[in-house]
Amino acid sequence: MSQEYMHKRYFELHGPYNEDDSNVTDGTTLGAITFTSTPTEVAALFAFPSVWNTNSPTKSYALEDSNKTLVVTYEFDNADDEAGFVTSVSSAYSGGSAFPTDQHVKHMKTEWYTAAGIEATDGGGHS
């Protein structure tokens, strides 16, 4: 797969408690959860709906920002597969089905790649 058909999305899951059950803030307000599990186990906690599998991307996971941000790298075989994925995910965001309704997911940013490296960074704009 080529880097030009790849992008990374950065997500936070907000709640009152960290993964180890300690308080995120005062135990009642929502804040970014700190994770103690592996990146793959954390990805499962986000319960990404099937739209995130559109066109069968190869996915890899990492944690950043003191284990508060899940970084998902999506890689595709070609530009059409990536474009179809982006269209489907954008529609899910618009329709309110990008994540389970009982979750508080914040999309922090997206990094778009070309063969030469990072082309653009999108501030997220989705919650």
Key traits:
Alpha-Beta Plaits; 6-stranded antiparallel sheet; 127 residues; 2 helices; single chain; alpha+beta
Helix content: 10-25%
| Radius of gyration, in angstroms, nearest whole number | 15 Å
Strand segment count: 6
CATH class: Alpha Beta
Average pLDDT score: 89
Strand content: 25-35%
Number of domains: 1
Helical/strand content category: alpha+beta
Calculate the terminal CA-CA distance, rounded to whole Å: 29 Å
Which fold does the CATH topology refer to?
Alpha-Beta Plaits
Contiguous uncertain segments of 5+ residues: none
Q: SSE order in H/E notation?
A: EEHEEHEE
**CATH architecture identity:** 2-Layer Sandwich
Largest sheet: 6 strands, antiparallel
Cα shape: globular
Number of helices: 2
3D structure, described in words:
This protein is an alpha+beta fold and 127 residues long. It has a single domain (3-122), classed as Alpha-Beta Plaits. 20% of the residues lie in helices and 33% in strands. The protein has two helices and six strands. It has helices at residues 39-46, 79-95; strands spanning 6-15, 31-32, 58-64, 69-75, 105-114, 117-122. Strands 1, 2, 3, 4, 5 and 6 form a six-stranded antiparallel beta sheet that branches. A hairpin with a 4-residue loop joins strand 3 (58-64) and strand 4 (69-75). The chain is globular. The two termini are 29 Å apart. The mean pLDDT is 89.
